[in-house]
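Dear support,

I submitted the protein below through the web form. The confirmation email said the job was done, but the results page showed an empty box. After a refresh the structure appeared. I'm attaching both so you can tell me whether what I see now is the final result or a partial one.
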Amino acid sequence: MKNDYLWDGSGRADPELERLERTLGQFRSTAGAPGFGPPEGTFAATSPRAVLNRWRRPRFLAASVLAAGCALGAVGLFLGTPAKAPLPGWPVAQIEGAPVVGSLTVGGNKGKASLNVGETLVTDSNSRASVVPATF
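What the results page shows now:
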């Protein structure tokens, strides 16, 4: 025997179920179910114009600009800036003795060295060196 009373009202009802229906019947509504639209804050994109209007809203425009800026910043950090080539130093030639450029003795380097920015050329009473200023 198939008893689908709870689903479609066919078959025989249980006496306890009939008593429960009578008790709760006073709360039964005769109105139809309310219609619900899309949830608040969502967009129903039914046409290309609706999609276009969604992207014209200020908050989406601001979010798009922010995302593009972050992407460009990340690319900039990834690629970095090209390293500048160091400026060529001035050539220093040993004439006599042992002149010192920075921490390098010119006489120990085949008599030649390069005087770079921030370095010093030190000569004593027995040393002489020739410096040729570079033109830029």
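Response: this is the final, complete result; the empty box was a page-load delay. The mean pLDDT is 78.
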